[in-house]
Amino acid sequence: MAKGTIAADQLRSFIERIERLEEEKAALTGDIREVYAELKGTGFEPKIVRQLVRMRKMDKAEYDEQEALLDIYKSALGMA
């Protein structure tokens, strides 16, 4: 087998894997959208839940830093 053929086969394999993962990602995105629609239907606010999900991903130091900055900015705008 020629070296170019091996590289082409390897490249094709990578591309096919990426395509499969993109399909899975699209399916998961749809599932997540359905959960947000369901929670909205039960009276929860999706924007706030999205914010909570983002916050839960942060480590404590990052969270504390963002909260402190938010407080400073709100205070500067007279919103505190």
Task: Summarize it.
The chain has helices at residues 3-41, 46-57, 60-76. It is mainly α and 80 residues long.
Give an overview in words.
The protein is mainly alpha-helical. The protein folds into two domains: 1-43; 45-80. The chain contains three helices and no strands. The chain has helices spanning 3-41, 46-57, 60-76. It starts with a helix and ends with a helix.
Q: Round the mean pLDDT to the nearest integer and report it.
A: 95
Helical fraction:
over 70%
The secondary-structure class comes to mainly alpha
Q: Give Rg in angstroms.
A: 22 Å
The counted number of beta strands is 0
Share of β-strand residues: under 5%
Element-level helix/strand string: HHH
In whole angstroms, how far apart are the ends? Answer: 70 Å
Counting structural domains, the number is: 2
Low-confidence stretches: none
Largest sheet: none
Q: What would you call the shape?
A: elongated
Helical segment tally?
Answer: 3
Q: What is the element layout, followed by pairings?
A:
Layout: H1 3-41, H2 46-57, H3 60-76
What tags apply to this protein structure?
2 domains, about 80 residues, mainly alpha, 3 helices
